[in-house]
Amino acid sequence: MLQFGYSAICFTEFLAENGKIDTIEREKDRIKEAKENFKKAEVEDKIRLYEGDAVEILPTLNEKYDAVFIDAAKGKYPFFLKEALRMLNKDGIIFADNILYKGYVLSDYNKHKQRTAVRNLREYLKEVTENESLETTILEVGDGLAISKKIK
Ligand SMILES: C[S@@+](CC[C@H](N)C(=O)[O-])C[C@H]1O[C@@H](n2cnc3c(N)ncnc32)[C@H](O)[C@@H]1O
């Protein structure tokens, strides 16, 4: 069964000719598994995997992207958003997975456990819904998916 690397593999189906995907993973065993899965799916020439912490790697990237998929540490979503906006092309789209986090984000959840993650996901939603350069839709599929298009 495909696990790590699955989303990057799925995104390859929507690449333009000669399009490429950059992805970041910091856990050694997951990096290994993702690379094996890229090979199995015969997409290894379309995906570049950066090995390390996205918090350190993202600020070093100066590419432009048509789409960004955020699906990592929930407490870092506002930082990932800032970096995504810096690199996103106009009409580009940011997908943020798990944005409703078991329903905690839109409820009055305020327990100590997961509080930081919930606070940061709320901050992410506030930013994408108030930022006038973005048009955002929130889907209640799975654990919640925010889709933001850069309109200006
Ligand atoms: C829910 S999984 C993502 C799975 C991915 N969408 C896929 O299909 O393989 C979250 C992954 O993000 C990685 N991660 C979390 N925070 C990270 C960070 N700051 N830098 C790099 N990777 C991170 C975790 O190690 C984990 O493998």
The CATH class of the largest domain turns out to be: Alpha Beta
The termini sit apart by 40 Å
Order of helices and strands: HEHEHEHEHEE
Q: What is the CATH homologous superfamily assignment of the largest domain? A: Vaccinia Virus protein VP39
Task: Please give the share of residues in helix.
Answer: 25-40%
Task: Give start-end ranges of low-pLDDT stretches.
Answer: none
- Using only CA atoms, what is the Rg? 16 Å
Sequence of strands across the biggest β-sheet: 3-4-6-5
* Largest sheet, strands/sense/barrel: 4 strands, mixed
Question: What does this molecule look like?
Answer:
The strands form two sheets. Strands 3-4-6-5 form a four-stranded mixed sheet, with helices on one face. A two-stranded parallel sheet has the order 1-2. β3, α4 and β4 form a beta-alpha-beta unit. The protein is α/β, with parallel strands linked by helices and 152 residues long. The chain has five helices and six strands. S-adenosylmethionine (SAM) binds at residues 4-7, 24-27, 30, 53-55, 71-73, 76.
Overview in brief:
The chain has five helices and six strands, in the order αβαβαβαβαββ.
Which short descriptors sum up this protein?
152 residues, alpha/beta, 6 strands, binds S-adenosylmethionine
Architecture blueprint of SSEs:
Blueprint lengths: L5 H7 L8 E5 L2 H13 L6 E5 L2 H4 L7 E6 L6 H11 E10 L17 H16 L3 E6 L5 E6 L2
Parallel strand pairs: 1-2, 3-4
Antiparallel strand pairs: 4-6, 5-6
Bound molecules: S-adenosylmethionine (SAM).
S-adenosylmethionine binds next to helix 1, strand 1 and helix 3.
